[in-house]
UniProtKB/TrEMBL annotation:
PANTHER family: CELLULASE FAMILY PROTEIN (AFU_ORTHOLOGUE AFUA_5G14560)
Species annotation: Neohortaea acidophila
Annotated family: Belongs to the glycosyl hydrolase 5 (cellulase A) family.
Protein name: Exo-beta-1,3-glucanase
GO terms (BP aspect): polysaccharide catabolic process
Keywords: Glycosidase, Hydrolase
Record flagged with keyword Metal-binding: no
Single GO MF descriptor: hydrolase activity, hydrolyzing O-glycosyl compounds
One Pfam family, short name: Cellulase
Glycoside hydrolase family domain boundaries: 23-340
Length: 378
């Protein structure tokens, strides 16, 4: 695995043209996996009831990944609830110092932000870089159906949203989440908002870029070496707006663009990617984000893509096309997901681990991902 050297409190300390660089000026290729749960209904990265967080971190490293995208919800930050110990069965050390209140019978902690921070530290102690991600406003599975979660803000929707948020409160949540990690050199940055979207083109690139710049400046004031990850519009599919209106920050070389690519993506053209010939697929990738790499403008991290372990013909077709394009473009990437199940122990067919949270599913997906890792593994 490539190492993340550090200086001035950050390891992936720069970007130049299309590459992310470490503090020594050497390229770091992010080969990431998503470890979700903090953004969902139980407010905690999943698997902690089964294995210790340090063991999960070591498994991630052993699988060859050098970085993790770790999602949270704004509701998690706003409410910061006490975590039910049932979700921490293999991490009982997190209960130390949190005793049951004799009068109320309620636990005094740990709270969601405590557990989230402990997971971040377990990953970075294992030498894994962490990109923290604001995944959703309301804590639940991101199905794209709730308008209150479509954007970083929802105050324009009034009483429709139970968790209400303005641009400024979104930024304050970010500052709360990132504050404990200012001096952790392996927390390398912030993936500012998951899959921004709107009805019938109402989510514009200009609006997203302006709000994201505001959030970035607030975070860079805390730690100027953090990288800022900017997802595209249309549920992170489309970063083409950066050509005419690039992200501009007061500190140079901190911008990484991010796209998500699934078999059902590409709905804007009416032809999902699972049905595209490679030439059509590659042309769409180039238009959406590949031009940033081909023209040496900025790095692109494909922060989400994935497939079920039992691929149908369209799924396999998409997968082969994407593996080819990621190899040809040499893009950074993050697979969705590590988890073997969703909340409620619903089978996560996209998961790379079996239900013991230890054993990888050594199928074509992991084989192909390891081939993509290439020089990122040493």
């Amino acid at each position: 695995m490539a190492s993340f050297a550090s200086n001035s409190g950050s390891s992936a300390a720069d970007q130049m043209g299309r590459y992310i660089l470490d503090a020594n000026g050497e390229r770091i290729k992010l080969v990431s996996v998503n470890w979700y749960g903090g953004s969902d209904v139980f407010f905690v990265p999943m698997g902690l009831e089964t294995r210790h967080r340090k063991e999960i971190a070591q498994t991630i490293r052993d699988m060859g990944f050098n970085s993790v995208r770790l999602p949270y919800s704004d509701q998690m930050v706003i409410q910061n609830p006490v975590i039910d110990p049932v979700h921490l069965g293999a991490n009982l050390d997190l209960l130390d110092g949190h005793n049951e209140d004799n009068e109320t019978g309620e636990l005094s902690g740990p709270r969601a932000l405590d557990v989230f921070q402990a997971c971040v530290e377990a990953l970075t102690d294992a030498g894994i870089a962490v990109i923290i991600n604001d995944h959703i406003t309301n804590a639940h599975w991101c199905d794209g159906m709730n308008l209150c979660d479509a954007s970083w803000k929802n105050d324009h929707l009034g009483p429709l949203c139970s968790i209400r948020q303005t641009t400024q409160s979104w930024i304050e949540n970010w500052k709360t989440v990132m504050a404990p990690h200012v001096d952790n050199p392996l927390v390398i940055g912030a993936d500012l908002r998951n899959e921004p979207r709107g009805l019938w083109g109402t989510m514009t690139w200009d609006a997203l870029a302006s709000a994201s710049e505001q959030a970035s400046e607030a975070l860079l004031a805390m730690q100027p070496n953090w990288l800022m990850f900017f997802e595209g519009v249309s549920s992170a599919n489309d970063v083409s707006g950066a050509r005419a209106r690039p992200i501009k920050l007061s500190i140079p070389n901190r911008v990484v663009y991010s796209s998500h690519v699934y078999a059902w993506s590409g709905w804007g053209s009416g032809v999902p990617f699972g049905r595209r010939a490679y030439a059509s697929f590659a042309a769409e990738m180039h238009r959406n984000w590949g031009y940033l790499l081909a023209e040496d403008i900025a790095p692109v991290w494909v922060g989400e893509f994935g497939n079920g372990r039992n691929m149908g013909p369209e799924d396999l077709h998409y997968w082969k096309n994407l593996m080819r394009y990621l190899a040809d473009s040499d893009a950074d990437w993050g697979y969705w997901a590590l988890n073997p199940w969703k909340p409620g122990q619903i089978d996560e067919t996209y998961g790379l681990l079996k239900k013991d949270w230890k054993t990888p599913r050594d199928d074509v997906r992991l084989e192909d991902l390891r081939n993509l890792m290439g020089s990122a593994i040493q």
